[in-house]
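ok, trying the design again with the full structure, not the truncated one.
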């Protein structure tokens, strides 16, 4: 017995539920650690006119040009007059939330080619048990489409979140909007980096031939934690990791048991760590090419995260079939924005 259109839609929905909602990320062609970290730190907001606003503060002093400022801590005795100063300095960063869409379709012609007929009914009348062959065939078709759609969607999200927000003006801004090689230049979230020195990421570049990378990374990590930041993620291109591993290997191989034992000649290097922070390989940096291959982005997910509208992150849609198109349509939308409420706990490191 042929499938009805409503049964076909039900099978597609079940496949989407299993492959999308049963796990945070479907099986992917290549790892996407940045996307996984951002999804893991995702927060929600109830909605609004168009901007996500977050209060931030970087100025902790009394207002005014007096030196010392009026109200500053000073000694007094007996009936000496004392002064009271004004305190301000709260800023609000603003990020417009965006809507993104992706979708796929399956034509009835594709199903006919595979020997599957569709009873075009919106209500699913005249249903009966289907042959085992038909069920297996439709499952395979849907599984292939859903798995491919899952990879396309995750790859597109990953690309957006590795961007700087210029590729798609109506899409999500990415990590490179917040973490740049010119931290004192530009406006981020409505705040000028030039005049607000506390509203900047860390940036450092080193010639690998003359630099002890573990030493300078240790120094930089101290600065990243200076204002309460606790970076826990480091995403690196292959060139950066190769340089770091080479320095560790060049200084670290020795044996007290002889080179004839397998353990003494194992050249594998475990993931490089700085306390709990692991330097992870992110293939997306190699895909970006150029200087990104030799780069490492250090991130504190508590201060760089996806802000998603409630019930609007990864929302499935099943549009009705247009009267003049014989096809099944499925879509997924995301309403959110990538936000930061602190920048001096994130860093970009590059080797040359």
């Amino acid at each position: 017995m042929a499938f009805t259109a409503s049964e076909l839609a039900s099978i597609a929905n079940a496949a989407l539920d299993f492959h999308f909602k049963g796990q945070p990320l479907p099986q992917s062609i290549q790892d996407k650690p940045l996307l996984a970290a951002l999804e893991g730190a995702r927060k929600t907001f109830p909605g609004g006119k168009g901007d996500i606003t977050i209060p931030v503060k970087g100025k902790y002093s009394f207002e005014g040009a007096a030196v010392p400022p009026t109200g500053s801590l000073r000694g007094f005795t007996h009936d000496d007059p004392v002064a009271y100063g004004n305190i301000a300095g709260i800023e609000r960063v603003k990020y417009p939330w965006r809507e993104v869409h992706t979708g796929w379709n399956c034509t009835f012609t594709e199903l006919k080619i595979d020997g599957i007929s569709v009873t075009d009914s919106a209500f699913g009348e005249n249903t009966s048990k289907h042959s085992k062959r038909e069920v297996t065939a439709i499952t395979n078709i849907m599984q292939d489409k859903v798995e491919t759609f899952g990879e396309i969607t995750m790859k597109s999200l990953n690309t957006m979140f590795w961007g700087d927000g210029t590729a798609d003006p109506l899409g999500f801004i990415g990590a490179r909007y917040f973490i740049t090689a010119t931290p004192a230049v530009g406006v981020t979230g409505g705040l000028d980096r030039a005049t607000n020195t506390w509203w900047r990421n860390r940036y450092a570049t080193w010639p690998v031939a003359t630099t002890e990378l573990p030493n300078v990374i240790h120094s930089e990590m101290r600065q990243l934690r200076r204002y309460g930041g606790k970076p826990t993620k480091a995403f690196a291109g292959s060139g950066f990791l190769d340089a770091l591993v080479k320095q560790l290997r060049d200084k670290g191989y020795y044996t007290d048991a002889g080179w004839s034992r397998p353990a003494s000649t194992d050249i594998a290097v475990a993931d490089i760590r700085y306390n709990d922070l692991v330097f992870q390989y992110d293939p997306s940096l190699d895909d970006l090419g150029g200087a990104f291959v030799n780069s490492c982005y250090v991130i504190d997910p508590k201060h760089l995260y996806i802000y998603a509208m409630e019930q609007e992150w990864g929302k499935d849609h099943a549009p009705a079939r247009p009267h003049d198109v014989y096809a099944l349509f499925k879509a997924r939308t995301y309403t959110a924005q990538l936000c930061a409420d602190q920048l001096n706990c994130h860093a970009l490191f590059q080797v040359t």
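Keeping the full-length input from now on. Residues 132-161 form the longest helix (30 residues).
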